[in-house]
Design a protein that fits this description.
The chain contains two helices and no strands. It is elongated. By secondary structure, it is mainly alpha-helical.
Length: 49
C-alpha cells in the first residue's frame, strides 16, 4: 500500500469532526456514565442481598 499525501487523506476526516461535536457526541457518554453510577449501587445491593 502506498501513502500518497497522508496529511491530505486524514486531514478532512479528523479536522471536520473535531470542529463542532454533535449533541449526541457528549450526551450519550454522559447518560452512560450516569446510568452506571445509578446502577452500580443497585447491582451491589441485589448481589449482596
Amino acid at each position: 500500500m502506498t501513502t500518497p499525501r497522508p496529511s491530505g487523506e486524514q486531514g478532512p476526516r479528523f479536522g471536520h469532526g473535531h470542529r463542532k461535536r454533535p449533541l449526541w457526541a457528549w450526551v450519550v457518554p454522559l447518560l452512560l456514565v450516569v446510568a452506571l453510577i445509578v446502577a452500580l449501587p443497585r447491582l451491589a445491593g441485589w448481589l449482596g442481598g
